[in-house]
Specification:
This is Aminotriazole resistance protein. Keywords: Membrane, Transmembrane, Transmembrane helix. The structure is a single chain. The chain is mainly α. The protein is built from seven helices and two strands, in the order ααββααααα. The longest helix has 34 residues.
Length: 190
Amino acid sequence: MSNAAYAQGEGNTLFPIVLSIVAAAATGVLWAYANPIQLVPGVIQWRIFAFLPPLVGILLGWRSGFICGYLGTIVWSLLAGTFIPAHSLIVDGIMVGLTGLIPGLLFNPLKVEMNRITLLKIAAVCLIVGLIMVLAVSASLAYLGIFPFWWAMGYLGLSDIVPMIIGTPLLVIPALKILKSAHPAGFTRF
């Protein structure tokens, strides 16, 4: 399939919206139940699927990345029993949503060649947006009296940033090939 079919949206435009909602649900479930490595037992797990919002953002568009991160956070917090309305709906949800939105804005596979330099840039953007997200979430948790700020920064940084900077650039090219072959009629990014 050519990038023209993918870019021009000759196919179903609803596809990326539906896929981002499905990815959000999968993200929340995976974050709640598929994190075998406990950084702080019972509290913080190594979120090995933290790469999903930036990956969805790059592949399906910045809005899709935000939906994946925001709704994935809500699903995860409800399933994990950690839902705190002000924190989950505002700070955590929005900041994790931004981890999908910003890479989706900066890296459109229709306009940018996915080569080694681009993959390094994706990793750098994931690092920066991950640090900003962890900073805001740690500040919120410290303000609410749940965790000390620097303690949260360290463990949440390990939990989220490491999988984002490794998984996103590692999986973007194979995922793009799968997406293109699975939807040969093309679709627009959302």
